[in-house]
């Protein structure tokens, strides 16, 4: 059975390391804040001007003045600090962000990412993703493995306009976990109930399977 959005976020949270400054993109990535492992201290950065973002608030405890870049209500943690977006992007462009988690429409097997524009649809611009993929030290993509038509989103080459070139390090999809290597996508974990044959059938780009590939385990 494929992972749901919360499980994708839960798995990505295991990639967080103590002391990391982390930017969470819009969509599935924002859920990572709810699954930070116990004992791991990270500082979540939101490009609209916040260091020290906490998990989502419980219903009835929302503060409309506290929002992330996706305009979702959030919480803060002790020591949080607010600033303008110019300073926020100065941090990003200076390489202060250790890890960025983004969604994607397509990822190529060399690490290219397309996540901002579908031809024919009106968009306001690329937004902060352009800076994040250019400057972050590590980029993990959270995504569905296929589009609504059942077509692979892990491709030999992106067909949509690129956001960044050769920048993605790892993908966590609803089917598994994949490293980007010189030989393309490398499956290192598969979702519970998902077979390797299914992953092969739904991956259009170059794919290898790790010798020690294992089923993903969720303890909570």
Q: Strand share of the residues? A: 25-35%
CATH fold-level label: Glutaconate Coenzyme A-transferase
Number of helices: 4
Number of domains: 1
Mean pLDDT, all residues: 91
User: Which structural class matches the secondary elements?
Assistant: alpha/beta
What is the approximate shape? Answer: globular
**Main pleated-sheet profile:** 10 strands, mixed
Q: What spatial order of strands do you see in the largest sheet?
A: 4-3-2-1-5-8-10-11-12-13
**Named CATH architecture:** 3-Layer(aba) Sandwich
Percent in helix: 10-25%
Beta-strand segment tally: 13
What keywords describe this structure?
single chain; alpha/beta; Glutaconate Coenzyme A-transferase; 4 helices; 10-stranded mixed sheet; 14% helix; 220 residues; 28% strand; 3-stranded mixed sheet; globular
Kindly summarize this structure in a few lines:
This protein has 220 residues and is an alpha/beta fold.
Structure write-up:
The structure is a single chain. With 220 residues, the chain is α/β, with parallel strands linked by helices. It has a single domain (5-215), classed as Glutaconate Coenzyme A-transferase, CATH 3.40.1080. It is built from four helices and 13 strands. It has a ten-stranded mixed β-sheet with strand order 4-3-2-1-5-8-10-11-12-13, with helices on both faces. Strand 6 and strand 7 form a beta hairpin. The two termini are 17 Å apart. The relative contact order is 0.16. The model has no long low-confidence stretch (mean pLDDT 91).
């Amino acid at each position: 059975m494929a992972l749901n959005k919360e499980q994708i976020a839960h798995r990505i949270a295991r990639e967080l390391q103590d002391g990391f400054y982390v930017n969470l993109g819009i969509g599935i990535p924002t859920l990572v804040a709810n699954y930070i492992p116990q004992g791991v201290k990270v500082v979540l950065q939101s490009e609209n001007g916040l260091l020290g973002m906490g998990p989502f608030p419980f219903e009835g405890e929302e503060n409309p003045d506290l929002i992330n870049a996706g305009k979702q209500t959030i919480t803060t943690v002790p020591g949080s600090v607010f600033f303008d977006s110019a300073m926020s992007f100065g941090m990003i462009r200076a390489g202060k962000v250790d890890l960025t988690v983004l969604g994607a429409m397509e990822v190529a097997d060399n690490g290219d990412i397309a996540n901002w524009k579908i031809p024919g649809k009106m968009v306001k611009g690329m937004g902060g993703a352009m800076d994040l993929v250019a400057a972050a030290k590590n980029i993990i993509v959270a995504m569905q493995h296929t589009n609504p038509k059942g077509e692979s989103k892990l491709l030999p080459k992106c067909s949509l306009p690129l956001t960044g070139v050769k920048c993605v390090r790892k993908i966590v999809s609803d089917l598994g976990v994949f490293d980007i290597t010189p030989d393309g996508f490398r499956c290192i974990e598969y979702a519970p109930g998902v077979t390797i044959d299914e992953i092969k059938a739904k991956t259009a780009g170059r794919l290898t399977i790790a010798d020690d590939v294992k089923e993903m385990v969720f303890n909570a």
